[in-house]
Amino acid sequence: MRTYFDEISKIAGNVVTVKADGIGYDELAVITSRHGTSLAQVIRLEDDQVSLQIFGGTEGVSTGDKIRFLGQSFRVPFTDDLLGRVFDGSGQPRDGRPEVKAETVEIGSPAVNPTKRRVPDKMIHTRIPMIDIFNTLVGSQKLPIFSSAGEPYNDLLARVGMQADAEVIILGGMGLRHDDYLTFRHRFDEAGVLGRTIMFIHTAADPVVECLLIPDLALAVGEQYALQGKNVLVLLSDMTSFSDALKEIAITMEQVPSNRGYPGDLYTQLARRYEKAVDFDGAGAMTVLACVTMPGDDVTHPVPDNTGYITEGQLYLRHGRIEPFGSLSRLKQLVNGKTRDDHRDIMNACIQLYAQCDESREKREMGFELSDWDERLIQYGDLFEAKIMNLNLNIQLFDALDECWKILAECFRPEETGIRNAIIQKHWPKKVLQEETTETSKA
Question: Does pTM surpass 0.85?
Fold first, then answer.
């Protein structure tokens, strides 16, 4: 039986400080007040001064209340009964259904030793051409979506969740508006994937301390499913809200602020979550796709800046599209050479021509006379944006590659694409190739 402590010396925000001994970091505690009981977690140890964050807030808590430490860190039940359910940041149901009873697993455990991981080699098909062709998502990859406010990043996450070939989908929502949460739920339900989805949701109206637990809850459950041999996709939105919650707690704790007021261990806190992505040898894999909003569209902001050093590339979401310049999947070369022999050629040629299209558009905007080549580049850019860059598309990889060939054939001659002749002969639309060969013979 743990001893009660009642020497509360400070209450600040959602944090209380009590004099106690024999307490461990991250340990849970129950605070008993005249208004009932509240769950709290240790977030700081300094000599015999123990600081705890209270999940339900400190309203009704006084310095004379009793605190009982439970001798364990936060745990989450793990069972297939979680599938199709929605929980809040403290692990309690928010879908009106009964609480889940099962064996529990600890959250926030260390990441898997890199020497025990498989080298990623499996593509995750999302049926979004700008990802599948140009920034291929690989199993066990950790890939952020960098987005400014107002961009449809949650819509993109929902679409990936609906279309990706994952066996289990786990959504960790942080600071979501209530309508965003409902949109995720309705779209997953309409797509028929809600039965294999687990949602841990923290809304903007919930206590800020619960926001910090969302990634750990999602990743702990995902890791257990991966150990069972399943391919798990974890969607996190948004990690800037998570970082802002860290900053708020750090200010309450009177920590010395770092860049723009964020705590000095921001990099470590982010890495602890991102590095949970893993491909187990002899089991399944857990892939992490996380949204990171950039205040003022500033990529040097501490959250995207630190994220870029941890993750394996990034997707830039601008003007409602995945930006082809700057977006990068550093692991794509491990898989896109095994998909189809023209994958890399199409990837390189389409992006090079689109870059030239941007130059031709600039010439048009500045009033310069356009050549026939400029006109065809602009035509290509319009078709490429409508038929490939559109995020509402749902196309299998091979069909998307074929569509790229059709767009190229509509705007250019084979020799103008820079693609190897052997690949041209094999994949260039046959009817177009025959017509061009006949015209050349007549000439």
Answer: yes
